[in-house]
Amino acid sequence: MALEHALLVALTERPGTGLELTRRFDRSIGLFWQATHQQVYRTLGRMERDGWVQVETAGRPGSQRGRGEKRYVVAPAGADALRSWLAEPQPTEQFRSALTVRLRGASYGDRAAVLDDVRTHLTEHAGRLAGYEAMCARDYPDPAALSGAALDQYLVLRGGIGLERFWVDWLTECLAAHDAAPDAARDPAAPDAAAPDPTERTPR
């Protein structure tokens, strides 16, 4: 997936100016596919040159005569590109997390620093979870009545809620396990004795 596809989805849902799009992107697709505002504007310019979007210039109250904001709409070529991309199967995304690798190696360095980082991540994920749940309750009070695009948007938001719940539950479990571990009072910088790796098979 490229940023172009995310922007095509957002603009198909509702055309808008670059500023409107960046704000909407932050609150919706940007929750799952992150991009800076500079990247969004740069990609919109490339999509305009490629004929994927068209620009309408509309004045706004208080603007100077003859000047207005660019309003982006999906062009026929962009709609075709989006349909083609939606029809193509996508490879399964591989899970990657630097924090999980740091946790795995915590015994060989400053475990306290790693656990402090776990607490920071837990706070951030808990905040996102609360925001997603509030958004879900506000925007989708009757999920059983949803269909079409609204149902798709709701299900993606539910996926975000499930993902954040995973992080909150797992990070909470990690901290509780370390607090309860027999060696909790030991110097966190001292490496543990080598332990067998349950993920590696022992040849017979």
TrEMBL record:
Biased composition (Low complexity): 187-197
Leader sequence residues: none
Pfam families named in the record: PadR (PF03551), Vir_act_alpha_C (PF10400)
Start and end residues of each Transcription regulator PadR C-terminal domain: 96-177
Region (Disordered) residue spans: 181-204
Sequence ranges assigned to domain Transcription regulator PadR N-terminal in this UniProt record: 7-83
GO MF assignments: DNA binding
Matches recorded under InterPro entries: Tscrpt_reg_PadR_C, Tscrpt_reg_PadR_N, WH-like_DNA-bd_sf, WH_DNA-bd_sf
Coiled-coil segments: none
UniProt keyword list: DNA-binding
Protein's name in the database: DNA-binding PadR family transcriptional regulator
